[in-house]
Write a structure and sequence with these properties.
The complex is a heterodimer.
Chain A (H helix, E strand, L loop, with lengths): L6 H5 L1 E8 L14 H7 L4 E9 H14 L3 E8 L1 H4 L2 H10 L2 E5 L8 E5 L2 E7 H7 L4 E2 L11 E7 L10 H12 L5 E7 L20 E5 L2 E10 L15 H26 L27 E14 L1 H14 L13 E7 L8 E8 L13 H16 L3 E8 L2 E2 L2
Antiparallel strand pairs in A: 1-15, 2-12, 2-13, 3-9, 3-10, 4-5, 4-9, 5-6, 6-8, 7-8, 11-12, 13-14, 14-15
Chain B lengths: L1 H6 L2 H13 L6 E5 L4 E10 L5 H5 L4 H16 L1 H4 L4 E5 L9 E7 L3 H9 L2 E2 L13 E9 L2 H4 L11
Antiparallel strand pairs in B: 2-4, 2-6, 3-4, 5-6
Helix pairs in contact in B: 4-6
The chains are: A alpha+beta, B alpha+beta.
Chain lengths: 406, 162
């Protein structure tokens, strides 16, 4: 309306997918390529994970969450790049071990370093890049005006040639000792399976004096939240006769997905607008819960983990929640939906991946058993078995390029 | 080459054939949303010094916030500015790190106008009565995005600060 150019807004996207999860997921070997899993694994550094679910479901799975879910802790450590290459740290954590590290700074203006799978990435401005004398490549600037060209250097420190005394390695050492000398704050997470983020026998990270931070969930209760009907998000079987209506149906579905995503965010924001008791004046807000007339007030619980959280743990969390809320499981009921959302750390300056969220709908129970006798009990078991053979419906959103400043 | 490819396929073929019978799931539907209806803003009300302690700890109520927003839009865009619809989604409690932070949503096409109006506005706190304690106020835009879920938890930059 007001002819203001909004370049940043045009870049923003949300990739939504609706579908069914596989009926069985092996906790030891979860899928990696399919949609909700690819979204989780596509965000290697995550600073907040949030789980939203009805309180009724939470109380039944609370104990198992506490006991079975891997405890997390991470470290904040001040290190210079050259201390990464010191023999002991280098051999233990980079050559033999597997760690996640990310440095402070904002991509696009500061020097930012990340370390993952033994690959050290350095994002640098042109001046610093040229002084290091290492090979790198320019990163795309998205055609932004007045933004200087920036470069990325990728060093695979696990290559056999990356050894103290080798020629190429000496150049890296030189650059770290003479150009990139400043000490920066890093977040550190050890991915070895037996540790919970920091190895117990090395709490000092080879003499680097880290600050160890346990990562426990903050539990927030949201009483009497209007929950819109979620069943309508299920993808129906595409029947050949209904081709004319499918496009209209899809458009409606798209709008619904956007609205539900907004609603989930409102819940995690703890906004009073989604509570059943809210009676705000339309002058102040005209937000309403989608399908408010069919929405039922329910108590919800949000669990929020904050810290450096590896994607593998989030997959574990998802598998755990799926198993606990599965049909016939301890928390099975028509309200046993849950949502996981995560926000990414260290977003790139251009088209950054901001995070994702995933809504898993309750397991389908065909023909609810009334429980009036043995026949019904048997029928119930069959129904549970049948329901388990069906995958759970899910909706996943991946957000790209929001302009968060703080 | 051909002989090896003929002798081998027994296993992968059967695995392939199995798959469709097991899969009762409907195909995945994916789509990209580029132009949603709303844009979300996280704003912080800042007080310009001199300001008394009582003004700082006074909670921000929705009506005052709405008045400040309207004043900013009116100053920059006049009547058409005040016509931009604003929904106040949440006002954070006055204490803590998010002091006087509010979350609003505006129609996406108007978002850049709203940001321009809010960031250029300085309001007089003295209009509320006492000229002694209340200094001027201004809005700071903390976050802007078309998808609220991408914004709610911030950027995580504070985790690096000990």
């Amino acid at each position: 309306m007001l002819e203001f150019n909004d370049d940043a807004s045009r870049r923003e996207k949300c990739f939504t997918s609706l579908g069914q999860l596989p009926p069985f997921i092996d906790p030891k070997q979860p899928p990696t390529r399919k949609v909700p899993f690819s979204a989780i694994l596509g965000h290697p550094f995550v600073h907040t994970v949030e789980v939203t679910l009805p309180k009724e479901a939470y109380t039944t799975i609370q104990a198992s969450l506490d006991s079975k879910l891997q405890k997390l802790r991470y470290a904040r450590v001040f290190m210079s790049l050259s201390s990464l290459l010191e023999t002991e740290f280098f051999n233990t954590y980079i050559k033999k071990g597997n760690i996640l590290m990310i440095s402070e700074g904002r991509s696009g203006s500061d020097s930012v370093f990340t370390l993952r799978d033994g690959i050290l990435k350095l994002e640098l401005s042109r001046e610093i890049f040229e002084r290091t004398g290492l090979t790198g490549k320019p990163i795309r600037s998205g055609g932004r005006k007045h933004a200087k060209e920036r470069y990325i250097i990728e060093l695979n420190l696990r290559l056999p040639s990356m050894l103290h005394g080798k020629k190429g390695f000496k150049r890296i050492e030189w650059a770290f000792q003479n150009v990139l000398t400043q000490s920066v704050a890093w977040l550190f997470f050890d991915l070895s399976s037996e540790t919970n983020g920091i190895a117990d026998d090395d709490l000092s990270l080879k003499g680097n004096h880290p600050q160890l931070i346990p990562c426990t969930p903050a539990i927030t209760e949201h009483p009497q939240i209007l929950v819109p009907p979620l069943d309508t998000l299920k993808l129906m079987d595409p029947s050949p006769t209904a081709t004319a209506t499918t496009t209209a149906h899809q458009e409606q579905l798209q709008n619904q997905c956007t609205e539900i995503s907004e609603w989930l965010a409102m819940v995690s924001l703890a906004s009073p607008r989604v509570t059943a008791a809210d009676d705000v004046d339309p002058y102040l807000s005209r937000y309403s819960v989608p399908d408010a007339d069919e929405a039922a007030p329910t108590d919800l619980v949000t669990l929020r983990w904050r810290g450096l959280i590896p994607p593998k743990w989030i997959v574990g969390l998802l598998v755990h929640l799926l198993r606990e809320t599965a049909a016939g499981g301890s928390a099975a009921s028509s309200s046993a939906w849950f949502a996981i959302s995560a926000n990414a750390l260290g977003r790139e300056a251009v088209e950054a991946r901001d995070g994702y969220s995933l809504l898993v709908l309750p397991a389908v129970m065909p023909a609810a058993p009334s429980g009036r006798g043995e026949d019904d009990a048997k029928g119930g078991k069959d129904a549970i078995a049948a329901a388990r053979r069906m995958g759970r419906h899910y909706v996943s959103w991946e957000f790209v390029a929001a302009s968060v400043l703080q | 080459m051909s002989t090896t490819s003929q002798s081998q396929p027994a296993e992968p073929e059967s695995a392939k054939r199995k798959a469709p019978t097991e899969q009762t799931s409907t195909p995945t539907l994916t789509f990209t949303t580029r132009n949603p209806l709303w844009t979300y803003l996280k704003l912080q009300l800042t007080h310009q010094p001199p300001v008394s302690q009582s003004t700082l700890i006074q909670p921000l109520d929705p009506l005052t916030a709405r008045t400040y927003l309207s004043a900013a839009l009116n100053q920059f865009l006049g009547l058409s500015g005040t016509a931009i619809s604003i929904d106040i989604l949440k006002i954070d409690p006055p204490t803590g790190t998010n002091a006087k932070t509010i979350w609003i949503r505006v129609p996406a096409p108007d978002a850049s106008a709203v940001v321009a109006a809010l960031s250029s506005w300085v309001g007089g706190g003295s209009s509320s009565g006492d000229a002694t304690g209340a200094g001027n106020v201004a809005w700071r835009v903390c976050a802007k995005g078309n998808f609220l879920q991408a914004l709610v938890n911030g950027s995580g930059a504070e985790m690096f600060v000990p």
